[in-house]
Structure formats: structure tokens, C-alpha cells
């Protein structure tokens, strides 16, 4: 066969083969589209054969949206779980007597509250009752990511129909966060807000560098337990109490990380707790006291008010603890050299203490110091 005919024949064969491969790719794509489950290897083969332009990435964007939604749902469930367990544990202590975020080095899901709602609607809930939950999760997200909290964003979340109820909705959301994490919502100016830890823990309550949720709530609960145990609590009593909150030594917690290290190392190093060996104990036992920074930054009355909010009651519901807290207030005032009206440090309970929380009301204590009985009964169950 002449050379030019051979060349034409080869060119014809190449075109026919290319058409056949392209048709095969089209058939494979059509089949994958029909099954709604495209195979990555088939798509890659078609791209190599036809040298087509890559897809727009809509499938990848869809996967990212689903992943962000799952992360948001997990964050919501975690916060809800923390709230419930903290309330139950503190309620037990008051009747008788709250994982470290691995976001420092891990890849964070940058989910926007507008892309994936944090708050799930409960049966029978109306629109207005859902708004505080939406703002609550928005506020926690902004705190965790160290991003500014903007009023215009929150107005978008609640919608134009509820703008006139914004102060009421925001107050409820702030109270929910306060009783779990011990952080206060503060207004910076007319357009911005910030969540501020009740104690001056490093990184605004996170203790360690990086992003994450505050550890202040756990510390406030421990300080309250120490107060109610006579200003000195045995280590075993602390772990029994924290066990009611599902916080266990040696087991990583989704907010606090490894609790033993946080409590016996970090908070001791920061001088918010004192951790010492009981004298003449064999085998060695340890106990906790308030550290110098806790004594300087808070009072028994503030701790009692915090625990009362968690349990939807007021400090005067616990007369013996309230009286002791009042005595400390008076002693502090006298130590500051206060005179006249300033020398009497009787505390007026703020109206926010009376606000109802998301938790059921606490039963009033019937005994002056039934803490040990409560913990023993809980541990048996």
C-alpha cells in the first residue's frame, strides 16, 4: 500500500478510536448521572481521554456544605449536652451542699451560621421561642472562632419580623451561655458585642492558646464545690461531683480536654486552685482550696449567684451559704477601709439572677448539709 494511503488509513483509525473512546466516556457519564453516584476513576479516565475542561466543582461544594452542617450539628449537640450535665451536677451539689478544643492544630470547619443552622426546631416550638437558641449558637461560634459579634448579623438571624424583640431575645441567649460557660455578653458599642470570661483566665477563658470554648464554667463549679465543703474539698469529692457532669479523670472531654491536667496542673499553675497533699495521709491523698487569683478575682457571693442561676433559683434559697457569703463581703469591705454606707456590703441580688433558665427549677434544700448523702446516692445509681 502506498505510503500516503497508509498515513490516511492511520489517521482515520486514530479519529475512529478517539470517537469511540469519547462515546464510551459519554456513556459512562450518562450511566453515572442516572445512578447519581459518579465513579472517580471513570471521571478521571474520561478527562484523560477527551482532554476536557475540569468540572465546576459543584459536587465538592455540596460535600463541603454537608460537612459544615454536620460540624454545626455536632457543636450544637455538644453545647446542649454540656448545659444539661452541668445543671444536673450543680443541682445535686446545691441540694446537698461544668475537650479541650483540638482546634489549635486541627483543621477547623469554617461554617457560617447562615449556611448551616445550629439550632434544631423542637416539636411544638413556635418561631419566637427558637430565636434565642439561634443567637446562642451564633454567639458561641463567634467566640470559638475569635470573630467579632455584630449586631447586624444577629438581626439577620432573627429576621425583620422580630427586630423589635431583639433585646429580649439577646438577653435570653446570653443567660443560656452564662450558666454553662460563665462568660458575660458585653456591649462594646452600638454595633458590636463580646463574650468575656467572669475570671481573668488566659485567652479569655480558653486557658490555652488558640481557639476553643471557655473553661471558666468548670472552674466556677469547682470553686462552688470547695465553698460548700467548708472551703476545702477532698480530691475524691471533686471527682465525684464532676462525674455527675460526665467529666472524668483521664478521659478527654469535648470542651475541657483531659480534666486531670486542666485541674491539677493548669489551674494550679495559674493560681486559681491550690492542690495540696493531706497531712499524714497514707496512702497520700490530696485536697483543693481556692487559689490566690480566685480569691482576688471573685467572691463566695458571686460563685453562689452563678450556681443559683444554673439551677434557676436565688442565693437566699441556701441560707447558711448565703450568710457565709455575706460575712465575707462585709470582711472584704472592712479590709478595704470602707466607711459609711460602703462599709455595709450587703449584696442586692441582681434581677438577672431571678431570670428563668432553660433548666427545671431546683428543689429547695431540706437539710443544712446533705451534700454527702446526695453524692453517695448518685454514685450508687
UniProtKB/TrEMBL annotation:
Residues 30-45, 71-97 have a biased composition (Low complexity). Residues 1-127 are annotated as: Disordered. Residues 1-17 have a biased composition (Basic residues). It holds the Pfam family MAGE. Residues 128-325 form the MAGE domain. One of its GO terms (biological process) is negative regulation of transcription by RNA polymerase II. GO terms for cellular component: nucleus. Signal peptide: none annotated. PROSITE patterns: MAGE. This is MAGE domain-containing protein. It comes from Panthera leo (Lion).
